[in-house]
Structure prediction request, 305 residues.
Amino acid sequence: MTDQATINQDLFKRTLLSYRGPFYIELISVFGTNIKEFTKEYNNSRRKLFRIFIELSQNVSYYSEHFHMVNNIQRIGLGELVLKEYETFFTFTTSNKVKNSDANILFERCKIVNQSDQLELRHLKREQRMNSPGEKFGARIGLIQAVMLSKNKLKYKIEKIDDKFSIFSITVKIDKN
Amino acid sequence: MENITLTSSPETPYFPEVNFDIESGKCEISGESYMEETYKFYLPLITWIKQYIETKNQKIELIIKLIYLNTSSTKCILDMLEVLKDYQDKGGDVKVIWYYDIDDPDMVDEVEDFEVESGMKIELREFE
Prediction:
């Protein structure tokens, strides 16, 4: 991107949604409805953004190492999300606590996803869905799906908190048109 | 065996509407599907289909009108398609119809992936 283009994008930049806390399904659903409303003039990106939003938010809800137990049964992950709008695209970021051992796996998974083209991602998605254990583990293809939908590379970051945990952040760029 | 009828609600848009009819063998799922613990929702539907196949041994039609399903739900739908494919391979009369929005090419890709993964032929129809 040229310097002028970067300046234009930054001038337009605004935060549409920012949240930190537990990722309850009821809350995710309300945010999702709002996102559809914010982006209704962009027919193509509206659908993609909603789908990516749900996938990444549910990853936080299911896998964050910082979590609440509801009625000693249901585990609700805590984390952070930020949705920003630029002149020609949106960015959606989620951050959550992970074990350091899992951080390495996630880092490698993101690297593989970013190195793959659309056809390779499609094969990877099919393979992982067919071989996933199912039940409570889901399909484990949310990151692949996010890249396939956005057609942009993931931006990801791991910041170590201590010997046991890190913060894993992931950003997806969704073009408006 | 009884029919399954689950209506959708604006308060819980992450649950789809479900109508499984024992007389006609028509099983329809519509709306959006991104609930937590997806398998707990879909397991009774998969069990119903298995029981229908065992007890009725008649034509079964799966009609999907989902405008969005999260990746966990796709795994459950795949399991459902595999049950139907198995029935078809044993001589059962099975039809799968998937409705999609013409402006949603990602959904068409998803359906193609389901066909490859399950081996089940899926008829695509545009929403009217």
About this structure: Chain B has a mean pLDDT of 96. The CA atoms of residues 115 and 121 of chain B lie 6 Å apart. The radius of gyration of chain B is 14 Å.
